[in-house]
Fold:
Amino acid sequence: MMNKRNTRAFAFGVFFSAMIIGIVYLQSNDDSKETANDLVNARSLIEQEGYVILSEAEYNERIETEAAAKEEKAKEEGHTDNDEPKMAKHALTIEAGMLPSDLAKQLLEKNIIEDADKFASYLDEYGYSKKLQVGTFEVNNEMSFKEIAELISK
Structure:
């Protein structure tokens, strides 16, 4: 049972322990903190490890130079930016009574999605198949399943 005397002794012990911890903390000299904050020492340490330090201007210049070299190399090899796959767009029309599998097949045929079964399962699993809206919706192949599902189930 805690009486007044025991409570005072406990409080004194906590106070005394806190004082000792505080004194030890203030008396300790941690040289590693001082060197970590020293910019010159940090820079030399980084350079000793084999890294190169660039200013922001130098970094941006290097990026621009590499981009120009890459573009020039592509021109020499006959490649252009037109070789990249284009975004496929489709006006998806949903009619009353259409099933999620019908939508998925239509999207697969127009190269909007890569797997009709996965898309149909996604609609069922997350409850979008019960919220499909009749109408025409603009979709593209860069949209995720979630984006398409939210668009057609508003």
Remarks:
- The longest helix spans residues 4-27.
- Helices lie at 4-27, 31-37, 39-48, 56-76, 100-109, 116-125, 145-152.
- The chain has a mean pLDDT of 86.
